[in-house]
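Quarterly update from the structural biology core.
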Amino acid sequence: MSGHRFLRRAWFPARRAWLVLALLALVQATAAAATVELLSGASFECTVLSKDDKNVTVEVIMSGMKVKRVIPLSSVYRVTINDKQYVINPRSPVPEKKRSAAKRTPPTTSAGPTDDKGALRTRTAIEAWIKEQGRTPPDWFEATPLNYPPSLDLSWPEKPEGGWNNQKNVGQYIWDIVNPNPSKWREGVKLMHHLLTLHQDDRAQRTRIMVELGRMYYNLHEDHARAAFWWQQAGVDKTHSPPGCSIHLAECYWRLGNKQMAVDHLRKMRSVPYDAIKLWADMGEPQQALALVESIAKNPRGQHHLAYLLGGDACRVAGRYDEAIEYYQKVLAVPSQDPGKGQIDRCHQRARASLEAIRLFELTDVASIADGDYRAESLGYEGPVEVEVAVRSGRIESVHVTRHKEKQFYSAMNDTPAKILAKQGVKGVDATSSATITSEAIINATAKALASAAEK
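Predicted structure, tokenized:
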């Protein structure tokens, strides 16, 4: 909640005169035990420490620790102190006819939200949806504790001193502790909002935090509206920096239902990252994807192995398997040498696995596979990724990752199996952005499992 303070002018309606009067009542109650009830319906016990005309600072007990929270008064419904109640903002009842609509989220298609007639949403509708979602905390936000190591340096210096310490440096804590642990994903978002409050007067630091907040919503929660909102707040839509986030912002527009917004955003970028190859392919524009591949291939300084690999993936998603094989073979033709030997070797491994998967496609007719649970593995980023595929009555009933050593897998563990279930096979399944290697491993392992089942 506290991290949304800098949006107080946009998120909440204008304050009224009675808000100031209620605040004066609180002045006499500083350092008193209180119960705070928010407009969202959440409530908690706390101690009031200080206040001004915009916020109240309280102390709450979380995970056995005393934690300070800065709460915008415009988000508070009522404060109870010494059995006296002070209504800060009256709740607005929702008219009976509008209640069902108020709780409804836009219907979605595979491409994103649609209007009530099923048409993909307009630019105006998408921007309105991004603002509405971004200015509203997720349903789980208030119930999520602000939980982080007491040793964490919340000043988050750009260049931390000393060696790697994920209990001190915020960036390393996110990488080592938050990202690999889904149980920490919501706490990671909560921490970023807390940092926004702490650094409210430092524009550069606040921008950095907003970029990371966008990454969390995008990578961990697949919340494309809130990811787009925070990246827009950070200016990514105008500066296209960081480039990787700018590409993912374009994907957010597409996922939310407006492909043209994504295309327009891509075409404004001066320097287009390799990730754009995948996005063009995912949007159903393989020719645009391959044009970018060939452009990179003509550049003597280009990472040809990576471009060819992404070109193969683009053709594979489009069902152009002969061309995909050609591109994967081009990857294998790139000599393994410095500079970039490690990355080249990894691309070789990914190309071999994808070639094997394509050759297994013809053996994966699910309708002819006997009921059973089938396992196989394929190489991920950190090691083998094993999946179990359950087939029942000629259909894929479930796909589960049963063993892996991946760390930065983000939403791939759930997202990729869901896509395979929707397609009832691996043909045309696109890998999860930002966790492409892990996602590819799940796809390839599933192909192996189905092929082995078909041979029995």
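The domain at 1-91 is CATH 2.30.30.100 (SH3 type barrels.).
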